[in-house]
Amino acid sequence: MKRLKEYLLGFLLLLANIIFAQTTPQQMVSSMGRGINMGNVLSAPVEGNWASAFTESYFEDVAKAGFKIVRIPIYFFGDRTLGNTSI
């Protein structure tokens, strides 16, 4: 009887692992499709310092070019650089 309980517990753990398994990074990347990285535009101390400021038309152009995924890195926690970063 003890052996049966051990097998049943092992089976349930295996089943739970299969059901609740997370997506691997490789699976997620392959399902994302074509993407673009917006770079550090919104990470600059002042928007527009490191590249042109974003406008709605920029995102429309990105969509027209066929990009489905947009990575927008943003830094919310104060100054990251010292000195003058303007061009």
TrEMBL record:
UniProt entry keywords in alphabetical sequence: Signal
Signal peptide positions on this chain: 1-21
Database matches in Gene3D superfamilies: Glycosidases (3.20.20.80)
Keyword flag Signal: yes
Name the record gives this protein: Cellulase (Glycosyl hydrolase family 5)
Source organism of this protein record: Lutibacter agarilyticus
